[in-house]
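Reviewers of the previous submission asked for a worked example of the structure-prediction workflow described in the proposal, so we include one complete record here. The input consisted solely of the amino acid sequence. No template or homolog information was supplied to the procedure at any stage.
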Amino acid sequence: MAEILQKDGTWAFDGDTIRIVPGRERGVHLMRQTLGEVTVPLTAVAGVAFEPGRRSGRLRLRLRDGADPLSQVTRGRLPNGADPYQLTVDSDRGGVAEYFVEEVRNALLLEQVPEGPADRYLLAGPAVPLSVGAGDGTVAFDGEWVRLEWNWKTEESKSSAGIQTLPLSDIGGVEWLPSAGLENGYLRFVVPRVITKLPPKHDPYAVELYGFKKDPLMALVAAAVTARLPHPSGPGQQGLARQALGPGDGAAGGATDAGDDHDALLRRLRELGELHRAGVLTDEEFSAAKQSVLKRF
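From that input alone, the workflow returned the following structure tokens.
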């Protein structure tokens, strides 16, 4: 058993799983404290590394693409302190961190765990029920329904629509984007039946985020919902991607029956964008499909 105990948290590896427990000190990020303990199966791990520093080092766990709904949603955009798969290590505990890394790497080799994408979620995601208030609204999720309520900061065009409740079956995907500079972030629930996508400040299915302390908690809601949606690599999802690409959208090329209709092309672009953000289309597939559509304008 390999274990490292720090003020920032505790990581323990028993040969099969890595148990991550956040610290309870004042400096530990609210995101990690709210998420709580995370158990990562070895089969979900793509790699592990320790980065030493003068005052402190950082232990990093890299998960396989598609193995974790939280990583699927955040895509590396969480601040270091909020990332549950990073641990701040005191300079005098660097040797322990190196030993931990060696034990995990040896286990990965012995078990021949592939580094490639997973075809199902290997982590369960945040526990429900879950309720977070940040930005211009509050989102609650009980495992079956999403409820969005508005506050005094909400634009009238959105708050006038009232409280929104969405069954899980109506949600096609979830998007989370943190604030960056002067650009606000958002949490958005993609509803396939709604064709027109409004800016987050006006979208009744989105919460606009302003860059405050509780904003990252919205990623937990996004991950909890994502964990209960079909996996991007699961049965039927690749077929959906191919259908969205169409017979001429992709490396093979060829004619499509979309024609030169401007509105139809705009709808195709929106559909491709939603599938890309939901993780159904890879970056390469999305880029090729988008270029194919743009050539027909």
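DSSP finds eight helices and 14 strands in the chain. We consider this example representative of the routine output the project will generate in years two and three.
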